[in-house]
């Protein structure tokens, strides 16, 4: 049953990644109202009339439904056949975040919600994906957390602060999308030709996100330098920090490309999706580093 459980864990992680990407697509194409005020039906029908917006929104709902069924099976298999407590926490977190997100999605369709609330949808999808990713890693060598050295308290705190702060940056990015503020800053790295523009309206929102993203880059750079200084090159903490640094650099550059692609709808949509996918991978690596800090000098057997 371990192989079957592993397959469903992998399907869950892939499914949550797909939900996250499709949710970003719904936001980017402004297809959230593609099914009107109806839920779970779409414009009063089980299979709606074809329009691009209804197709995108209804496809997203359909994928959420299928992945939820996969999660139910995964939840049963993990609690029935896996002895590791962390695996049970991971699948429970995935299911909880998915249910909350689905409930909020339904409420957003039926009742209008503010951009502050709508921005939480991507954050919840990100948490669900991170939990599912950690669950899938349980069944790989990366998920066997034997540690033969002490992790310094300061480094643990740095890892957790960086991960939490990255979530804040993600929320700001989602807020930019839901307030349709992307055009607030034309050009990159300058904003409307200025180092510090007028901080009001859409310009203030986008500029705040840019500054937060830049600070995140320096946080992860500092994290990597500390990991490299304190631990051996082969240590997972060093490898995870290095990949986090690579991904945050890619994230900053992809943000620049998103700005440069404004005016070309296809390029803007494509680069925006890439931007969302990179941040998902980055957050996944940071969550993995957080888990590593919880297994300081603790052995963990392979899942049964």
Can you give a write-up of this model?
By secondary structure, this protein is an all-alpha fold. It folds into two domains: 1-143, no CATH class; 146-304. 72% of the residues lie in helices and 0% in strands. It is flat, with a radius of gyration of 20 Å.
Descriptive keywords:
mainly alpha; 304 residues; COX15/CtaA_HemeA_synthase; 8 helices; 2 domains; iron
Give a nutshell description of this structure.
The chain is an all-alpha fold and 304 residues long. The chain has helices at 2-28, 52-81, 85-110, 115-138, 153-178, 201-230, 236-260, 265-294. It folds into 2 domains: 1-143, no CATH class; 146-304.
Question: What is this structure's SSE topology?
Answer:
Layout: H1 2-28, H2 52-81, H3 85-110, H4 115-138, H5 153-178, H6 201-230, H7 236-260, H8 265-294
Helix pairs in contact: 1-2, 1-4, 1-8, 2-3, 3-4, 4-5, 4-8, 5-6, 5-8, 6-7, 7-8
Q: Which descriptor suits the 3D outline?
A: flat
Quaternary form: single chain
- Biggest pleated sheet: none
- The string of secondary-structure elements, in order, is HHHHHHHH
Between the first and last Cα atoms, what is the distance in angstroms?
9 Å
Radius of gyration: 20 Å
**Which stretches of 5+ consecutive residues score pLDDT under 50?**
298-304
What share of residues are in beta strands? under 5%
Domain count: 2
Helicity, in percent? over 70%
**Average pLDDT, all residues:** 84
Class by alpha and beta content: mainly alpha
Question: So how many helices?
Answer: 8
Number of strands: 0
Pfam families: COX15-CtaA
GO biological process, one term: heme A biosynthetic process
InterPro entries: COX15/CtaA_fam, COX15/CtaA_HemeA_synthase
GO molecular function: metal ion binding; oxidoreductase activity
